[in-house]
Design a protein that fits this description.
Chain lengths: 270, 396
């Protein structure tokens, strides 16, 4: 009904977490993205979720371990209190192994599925375990955008930072399906990135970020193995942005979102 | 927040297709629940099934989206002239300026469940006609809707179990406040499937009778299905009688994956956040549409939270005895029920509930009755401790 001049989607980045095949954490990824270390292909290493109470730790799936690892890394990087942080989880799918097990059993005559498998089947399972682990009662958003999941999560997280004026932890992640679903959705392994976004600059701010719509082509990575990760794992559509952050450079990169809509990211290093 | 206009809205559930059927059922205190004969499901439970969903044909150009969930989505979009309202908004604002924010808990998982019965006996492969992206994936509903209208702007699925399609109102409101879009299609669609029917049964959360929210003898949910949509826009001077989104509130229980916080702490925080967002006090609310699933734990915890904030003054009811629990669609279905209640000065009752739980002292409405209403609050809570409350009002 009424037009309104767009408010810039801007925030400060205070913390980064990353885990991907061959890139076990942000410091190692940073060294690779700066060209200081070669990329070595390896399966993703998921640390044990020691923060969870024993009962939940036993039930923790790969996506739970992944999201706790990257979310806690980003929060620690920023020295933020995870017990108060609002979160935006964004994933192209839920727990693929759990989904396969449910579908396999429901195709048999014995359909008495396990209640734990059922509650772990929700798309927001990792977010639920995050809440139990961190005791944060702040708003927690859980998004799916298929291959566009990183961009969708970034848009909502920036919305919370700008409109609700609250530090918000974006946790974008994906994981693999076993066969036979793997043949239909071939995400190769677990991978994800977490960014702690804040509405005001502090001494810990790493860079200012402003996002705007675009119809340009997405930036690519020169190193073929990294470019392969960018296209294979939806959360890693963020890699061109992470490369700027790793190098401490200012500049503009275009990230893949949802054709024909792309996202320009302007980064100003602190 | 600045109030947003619901310039169109619609709901399709087991009560019927569209607003007239829904309103008539609410007025009459009718339930759409039936004994479960869905697919090959063998469970002693009642369900809220929408008739003839599988007779709905998608256009050839969208055939890749064909599954029960998107068939119900299309059925829902075509009710009450909602699709025409969306097309008018697209013509007004442009196809990149109308966003899509839709909630679902299971999307088209039924399609995968059925495909697993047709695996190649030798290789175990799924059949060639199974398409993961456009049926199974949680985004398939939002992507189908975006393609249905030929949109080119932002789209996202929110999937937080049974709060999904309440939280889309908050996400869309943020983008409208930012001015990154001019209109938003919000809503939710969830359809019956084996995962949820056998899953809730495994947790012993399904009732063998039609569900009885807030009843002393309540013993579980009746799973339902539904499609509900609203078109949200900014407005400077809302016409008298139009329905507005006044506030949104979100919180997390941080307590347990499938049980609510026993004191309803997260629920209370979400309701308080919605009041703060709308700059209202508890005394300003005239009706509460409760989450009211009819499980012993949910209604006890929610009752404590509502009692702590509102006392026993505000008329409240759960409408899940009428619609069943439509899971990821429940937030949007009940948002539309609030809009109907406000437009028609109707306090909805609670079909199925006969003996109120004396341990929960609320002004619970067993039967529908006329009452002047200006503002309504709707609660939606999900697995993983995801809570969302919305406040709607009627423009004076």
């Amino acid at each position: 009904m009424i037009a309104s001049a767009p408010i810039p989607l801007s925030a400060w980045i205070e913390g980064i977490g990353l885990l991907a095949p061959g890139l076990p954490d942000w410091p190692s990824a940073r060294a690779v993205l700066r060209g200081e270390q070669p990329f070595t292909a390896a399966p993703s290493l998921l640390p044990a979720p020691t923060i969870l109470p024993p009962a939940e730790r036993r039930r923790a799936s790969r996506v739970v371990k992944l999201t706790l690892a990257i979310g806690l890394e980003a929060a620690a990087h920023a020295a933020a209190d995870v017990g108060t942080l609002a979160t935006v989880f964004s994933a192209s799918g839920a727990d693929g192994h759990n989904c396969h097990a449910l579908c396999e059993q429901l195709a048999t005559d014995d359909r008495q599925i396990s209640p734990t498998r059922f509650h772990n089947s929700v798309h927001n399972a990792a977010a639920g375990y995050w809440g139990i682990a961190t005791k944060s009662m702040a708003p927690c958003q859980v998004i799916c955008g298929f291959d566009a999941s990183f961009g969708a999560g970034l848009l909502d997280a920036l919305g919370q930072v700008v409109i609700d004026r609250q530090p918000t932890l974006l946790i974008a992640y994906d994981s693999e399906y076993p066969e036979p679903l793997h043949a239909k959705r071939d995400t190769p392994d677990c991978g994800g990135v977490a960014l702690l976004l804040t509405p005001t600059r502090t001494t810990r701010s790493l860079a200012a970020i402003t996002v705007s719509p675009s119809n340009a082509s997405a930036a690519q990575l020169a190193e073929p193995a990294l470019e392969n990760l960018r296209t294979a794992i939806p959360a890693l559509r963020s890699l061109p942005l992470l490369q700027l952050l790793a190098r401490g450079e200012s500049g503009r990169v275009c990230l893949d979102y949802l054709a024909p809509m792309q996202l320009n990211v302007d980064l100003q290093a602190c | 927040m600045t109030p947003l206009l619901l310039s169109g809205y619609t709901a399709t559930t087991c009560l019927g297709r569209g607003l007239d059927a829904t309103l008539a059922a609410l007025r009459d205190g009718r339930s759409g629940l039936q004994p479960c004969h869905f697919e090959t499901v063998d469970l002693a439970t009642w369900i809220g099934e929408v008739p003839a969903v599988d007779a709905e044909k998608l256009p050839k150009s969208l055939a890749r989206y064909d599954c029960r969930n998107n068939r119900l989505a299309q059925l829902g979009l075509q009710a009450d002239g909602f699709a025409e309202r969306v097309r008018a908004a697209v013509a007004r604002y442009g196809k990149a300026r109308v966003g899509v924010f839709l909630g679902t808990s299971t999307a088209g998982i039924l399609q995968t469940e059925l495909a697993y019965r047709r695996r190649d006996p030798a290789s175990g492969a799924l059949p060639d006609d199974f398409i993961y992206r456009t049926t199974h994936n949680s985004f398939s509903l939002a992507e189908f809707t975006r393609d249905y209208f030929g949109l080119e702007g932002p789209a996202m699925a929110v999937s937080t179990a049974c709060s999904s399609s309440a939280k889309v109102f908050a996400a869309a409101a943020r983008q409208l406040a930012l001015g990154s879009i001019d209109a938003a299609i919000v809503g939710g669609v969830d359809t019956l499937c084996l995962t949820t029917l056998y899953g809730f049964a495994s947790l012993q959360l399904t009732s063998s009778q039609p569900c009885r929210p807030y009843d002393e003898n309540r013993d579980g949910i009746s799973v339902g299905e539904g499609a509900a949509f609203a078109l949200l826009e900014r407005v400077d001077q809302a016409a008298s009688g139009s329905i507005l989104l006044l506030g949104t509130g979100e919180s997390s229980d941080a307590y347990h994956m499938s049980s609510p916080h026993p004191e309803g702490l997260g629920a209370r925080m979400a309701m308080q956040a919605a009041l703060n967002s709308a700059s209202l006090n508890a005394a300003d609310i005239d009706y509460i549409n409760l989450h009211g699933t009819a499980t012993p734990a949910n209604d006890a915890a929610e009752g404590k939270a509502v009692g702590a904030l509102f006392g026993d003054r505000v008329p409240a009811s759960s409408t899940k005895g009428a619609t069943g629990h439509t899971l990821g669609a429940a937030g949007a279905v009940e948002a539309v029920i609030c809009a109907l209640a406000l437009s028609h000065d109707l306090l909805p009752g609670s079909p199925g509930t006969t003996t109120l739980d004396p341990a929960i002292p609320l002004a619970y409405q067993l039967s529908s009755r006329p009452a002047p209403l200006r503002r309504a609050l709707s609660n939606s809570f999900g697995f993983g401790g995801s809570n969302c409350s919305l406040i709607f009002g009627v423009a004076p």
